[in-house]
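User: Okay, second chain of the day. Same drill as before: sequence in, structure tokens out.
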Amino acid sequence: MDCPQLPDTQSATNGQKRLQGAAAVLGRDVMIRLLIYALYLLGFNRETLAEMFGYQLAGVKSIIDRVNKFGLEGLTDQRRSNREPEPLKPEIKANEGEFMIYTPEPVKVKIGQDDLLARKVIATALVDAGIFTNLQGAAILNYTPQAFSRLLKRYREKGSAELLDRRKGQQHDYKVDSAVKSEILYHFLKLSCSNISFSSKDIYQAVKEAFPEKQISERTIRYYLTLWGFSEVHRRLKEELFQGKKN
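Assistant: Same drill. Structure tokens below.
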């Protein structure tokens, strides 16, 4: 609603801001009934109030009578108060490039102890939002407060990408899921049994075709072959194949 202009000493601009704040806290209907009753107490007649707020005269009389009879409860809609309240639902709102998440009820978030990245995201987001303290955020990660403060600083400066562990193995595990690992293993074994020479590039090409969206590098393929001990197996296979051709 627009703020009505009353005395000359009133600031309509400030009034409009205050009305919006009150409507957000009380609800628009309750706020209007409260204003009607307060102005009635200050001497405004019912006809003026009805015209000012767009009510029927009978509606204004009903609001005043209900508050006089029931007190503050008279400010609410009696028709609604007799019904079961509708359960509130979580809301996600986008505003100026940010997503705001509103949860009217306590939320349980279950995270595996081995999912460090998820714990980092949740801990830093909750502390950044002022819901958790630094100590609580550090406790989620088993960090010292100083280490968590450094992590939070990186998150605030550059976002969640800074929460990735920069160690080589951790980066690979973030990109390569079990399906990709299985594909690497499958093609290594397949080529090993083919009795022909092959390299990590051959496995890379096969994985790239199977998962074009993953953008897995040849370096990543070599990393896993080494991690699993297959680089040594591959070396021996090449030696045996070379000796076989030589003989």
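Residues 12-81 form one domain.

User: Thanks, on to the next one.
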